[in-house]
Amino acid sequence: MAVELQRWREPATVFTGGFAHERHVFWLDAGPDAVRGWSWIGTGVPDAPEHVRATVCGGETPAEPGRLRGGWVGWVGYDAAAGRAGAPAASDDDVPQELWLRIRTLVAFDHARRRVWALAADEHSARRLAMRVAGAGDRYPAPAPVAPTAATVAAARHTPEEYAGLIERCREAIRDGDAYQLCLTTRFAVDTVAVDVIEAYRRLRSMTPAHHGGLIRSGDAALLAASPERFLEVEEGTVRTRPIKGTRPRGADAGADAALAAELVTSEKERAENVMIVDLMRNDLSRVCAPGTVAVEGLLEVESYPAVHQLVSTVSGRLRPGTRVDDLLEAAFPAGSMTGAPKLSAMSILHRLERRPRGVFSGCFGWVGDDGGSDLAMVIRSIVWGPRGAYVGAGGGITWRSDAAAEVAEVAVKARAPLAALGAVLPPGW
Hints:
The protein is of the alpha+beta class.
């Protein structure tokens, strides 16, 4: 049952005023000051992953109150998926590899039309939820800044020199013909004893707004995301993926910024890297799509965010009838933009080089609807929160033409803002 509120409410106000205290809660966030797209806030209960995976892909497109009207919100990590794909896999038990919340209450925000709905199992519950949302208040103060004296140096999994050495080993594997591209990653860990998870997410979304932001918390585990990369979207039987390969920082002024964007789109290395992943994703989707329906809708398009420019492409296909969420994930996950190509060989090589689990980083998060629609984004530019602290993963695609110093610098660009949201800084040298 859906009840429309009489006036617009800001998602940030609703979450902080009415939902932040909940133990199992989510906020799928279109970003601060969004003028398009949807945000969803709600509560749920932990559910078995097999219930989500058994859902048959479909996805209606109702006029209102939006595509998500019931289903699940959660994440799937990298390591277990790599193991299911046949690659060697590490384990990381601090945070669940796969976590889904079965939606119990839901607030839907249509940013384009500035309309809000409260959804619940029955009319009485929906009206009570609407009153709760309306009473959340109008004041949304800016997130509290982190004092410079409180800055913490993150613990790095690799030094810059070690990471540069791994880049050279990636290039050796490419030279030997074992891979075309390898998406090498590392991790930065932070003690979160004195950090509030809600305040950390408020800082993250303020510093790096993204169309697929989000906070998902279940007990002691949480994911704080500011992802610019949509992984899989299913709507009316069509699946789309939008891999990102190629990154440049934003410039200090308009001229420098335009030059960096132009450098990105003309870079032979970045273009080759992006096209290789497009080909990989075309192959992955062809495993679950009708013959002749897989197509490239957009190629090598620059998207700009507050911290970075990204090179993005779009691949789509018509799913075969009866395709389940599990079938789609088995075909396409882990995402090629986080593995390299060929995928199985790349994952095996990266396991040997990285030697430690990636955890939820490099996985995906978002929603799967009861009607088989879904919208999943990559876990990048994100914070993974567990009982022993938090971590930020970052990496980049390595090709034969990669320059180690440039790749190290790219990791720093990607990790800096999520770490700052935790009140932390990169270690010296990064």
